[in-house]
């Protein structure tokens, strides 16, 4: 079956700009794990669509604001993660938890705003929705219900698994030279594993379950009808996996059985995996340019039952292995991106790739609506 996407969907500047509004400013987009901004005034910053966004904890309530001061549009927070009140670094304006300006130093001497003008001085606020520990932001002023993007079953499973997340997470952002869609398609395509990861990932998948799509592995006996509904693009599966036993496993509250690989696909740009309910990794494919993406990894372990002094080293070790696997993909996908041009022909999908066919149709539906 021919893909509904054309080569220029992966390199055209106008299409890339249109995606910002039609996809990233329309859907619920993953922002961070709540565990990473757990303390009062802890924050992270993200670029979503045309906006930079602050996601901040105000005494346990998570809110999102445009990271742009209403005075001269200076960003309030410049770090990716941090902790601190909403104070503009340029002229010291202070904002409260509702985004309203609270203090303007030297107001009467220098600014002299009337009350009506002053009431307009607020940070633009965005909608936030939290599923388990997964914090999502929606930039639309009238967001779609999150239930129309993620099924109740998927939300329940995300909530259950995230109850096991430990508080310590490690992060890495990896710049890669390809379109963000190629990475989401790559994680949907389990048949690349034997060829791209023969030594790293393949040996861990149990023989009887080499499809790596677990409980949906029989679907490719015939070509299922593509499902272009938005809600069908986010789903999860499990696969039998060999998980080597390490002593620290006995001291954490793992999720589910150990010999299982959990794989969640959160449309449009997140793949969340868990190895044995012991290690949890969020991979997000953040669009930077038509042919550039930032792959953002956030990795944590199952919650400790006793304090593990070695935990930071354990997390760094796992992160390093995950990055090594990613680089095996990156080498191939960057080559694919470089080969694309107006002259490229259209992709031919086989039956096993019905998820990619559905992804393309759902994507085009959203692009057409706008
Ligand atoms: S730009 Fe923010 S206080 Fe001036
Ligand atoms: Fe891969």
Which key features would you list for this structure?
370 residues, alpha+beta, Rieske Iron-sulfur Protein, 2 domains, seven-stranded antiparallel beta sheet, six-stranded antiparallel beta sheet, 8 helices, globular, binds FE2/S2 (inorganic) cluster, binds fe (ii) ion
Protein model, in words:
By secondary structure, the protein is α+β, with helices and mostly antiparallel strands. It folds into two domains: 1-23 and 151-370, Naphthalene 1,2-dioxygenase Alpha Subunit, Chain A, domain 1 (Alpha-Beta Complex); 28-143, Rieske Iron-sulfur Protein (3-layer Sandwich). Helices cover 25% and strands 27% of the residues. It contains eight helices and 16 strands. The protein has helices at residues 13-24, 107-111, 115-119, 152-162, 180-188, 193-196, 311-339, 354-369, and strands at residues 29-33, 42-48, 51-58, 61-66, 81-83, 86-87, 94-95, 101-103, 125-131, 134-138, 165-176, 235-240, 260-266, 270-275, 279-289, 292-302. The strands form three sheets. Strands 1-10-9-4-3-2-5 form a seven-stranded antiparallel β-sheet. A six-stranded antiparallel β-sheet has the order 11-16-15-14-13-12, with helices on both faces. Strand 13 (260-266) and strand 14 form a beta hairpin. The longest helix has 29 residues, at 311-339. Bound molecules: FE2/S2 (inorganic) cluster and fe (ii) ion. Fe (ii) ion binds at residues 186, 192, 196-197, 329.
């Amino acid at each position: 079956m021919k893909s509904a996407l054309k080569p220029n969907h992966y390199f055209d500047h106008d299409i890339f700009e249109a995606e910002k509004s039609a996809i990233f400013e329309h859907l619920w987009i993953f922002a961070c794990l709540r565990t990473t901004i757990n303390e009062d005034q802890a924050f992270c910053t993200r670029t979503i669509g045309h906006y930079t966004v602050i996601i901040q904890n105000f005494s346990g309530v998570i809110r999102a604001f445009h990271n742009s001061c209403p005075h001269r549009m200076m960003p309030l927070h410049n770090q990716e993660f941090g902790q601190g009140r909403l104070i503009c670094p340029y002229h010291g304006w202070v904002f409260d938890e509702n985004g309203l300006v609270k203090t303007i130093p030297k107001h009467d001497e220098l600014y002299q705003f009337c009350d009506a003008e002053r009431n307009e001085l607020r940070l633009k606020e965005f909608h936030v929705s939290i599923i388990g520990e997964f914090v999502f932001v929606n930039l639309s002023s009238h967001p779609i219900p999150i239930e129309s993007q993620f099924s109740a079953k998927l939300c329940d499973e995300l909530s259950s698994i995230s109850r096991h997340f430990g508080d310590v997470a490690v992060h890495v952002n990896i710049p890669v030279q390809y379109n963000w869609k190629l990475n989401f398609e790559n994680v949907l395509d389990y048949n690349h594993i034997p060829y791209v990861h023969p030594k790293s990932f393949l040996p861990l998948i149990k023989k009887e379950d080499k499809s790596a799509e677990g409980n949906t592995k029989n679907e490719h006996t015939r070509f299922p009808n593509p499902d272009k509904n938005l809600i069908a693009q986010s789903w999860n599966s499990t696969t039998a996996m060999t998980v080597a036993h390490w002593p620290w496993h006995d001291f954490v509250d793992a999720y589910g059985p150990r010999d299982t690989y959990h794989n969640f696909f959160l449309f449009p740009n997140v793949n969340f995996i868990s190895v044995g309910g012991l290690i949890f990794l969020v991979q997000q494919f953040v669009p930077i340019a038509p042919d550039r993406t930032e792959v953002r990894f956030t990795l944590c372990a199952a919650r400790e039952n006793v304090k593990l002094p070695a935990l930071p080293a354990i997390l760094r070790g796992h992160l390093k292995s995950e990055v090594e696997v990613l680089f095996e993909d990156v080498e191939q996908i960057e080559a694919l991106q470089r080969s694309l041009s107006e002259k490229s022909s259209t992709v031919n999908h086989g039956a096993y790739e019905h998820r990619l066919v559905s992804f393309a149709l759902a994507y085009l539906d959203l692009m057409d609506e706008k």
